[in-house]
Amino acid sequence: MSAIVSLVRRPRQAGGTISLFALMVLAGPSLLLALAAGWVGHGRLMGERGPRAFDGFQQVRVKTVQTQLDQVRGPYIVVMGDSHAERLFLPSLCGLPVVNAGLSGATLSDILDLARKITLPRQAQAVLISAGTNDIWVKRGPGTAEAENRFQRGLDSLKQLLSGWTERRALIAIPPVAGKEEASFPRAAAARYSAMLARSCEPRGCLYLDLFGEAVDIRAPRSPFSDGVHLRDYARFFREREAEICRGLGIPAGR
Q1: CA dist 84 to 7, 176, 228, Å?
Q2: Phi, psi at 101, each rounded to 5°
Q3: Where are the alpha helices (DSSP H) in the chain?
Q4: What is the rounded CA–CA span in Å between residue 197 and residue 121?
Q5: Which end of the chain is least crowded, N or C, by CB within 10 Å?
Q6: What is the mean pLDDT of each run of 10 residues along the chain (255 residues)?
């Protein structure tokens, strides 16, 4: 070990190239093993970035959402779900403040997990949910019976949990994606999973909304997408149909 330290310090006195080479020769297998381990670690960070980074991000979002809930006063609405929810800038709806509990990258299971970790100060006037896009990602095998059954079980569990949160909820159909992204997020899968969302809405106390169906407009001078998957302006669709949403939820618009 002292020899390695000596070689590391020697570049100040002699040529750094010889010392570095000597260090590599001396370290031999140990150095190669360390480099290999570092590369594997790098690969894991790149290849498994989703799960590892997502866990930390989820913890931060839980704390952020809880802090916002603790601050809200009076009646309020909660918007929760995936990145479509998190990217929504909607300070108010139906005249009520909106708490954004969106979680980018979340599947329905992740949304349910987040919901279990936060505590509402009192019942919300309504909860709006955007879910499904990450569940229909082709790498998750959305066409399998296992995946569809898991999604349905998640909907059943979420319905039961939200029954203690509010008397009103809205489920939003999976937004479309740009044509170049349809291989990753199949349109047929989006239709099937959106149908499950619609069926999970009971006749009273639940509203199914297909808000973004018209988002793909090839005649528009500017693409409605910011990156092929996410829309540039989510709030516009809510504002354009705010009266309908409030009426469907049983909340007077501009309350």
Answers
A1: 55, 11, 13
A2: -110, 30
A3: 2-9, 16-27, 29-47, 49-71, 83-86, 108-117, 145-162, 187-199, 234-240, 242-249
A4: 27
A5: N
A6: 42 43 44 37 36 80 97 97 98 97 97 97 98 97 97 97 96 95 96 97 92 73 89 95 96 74
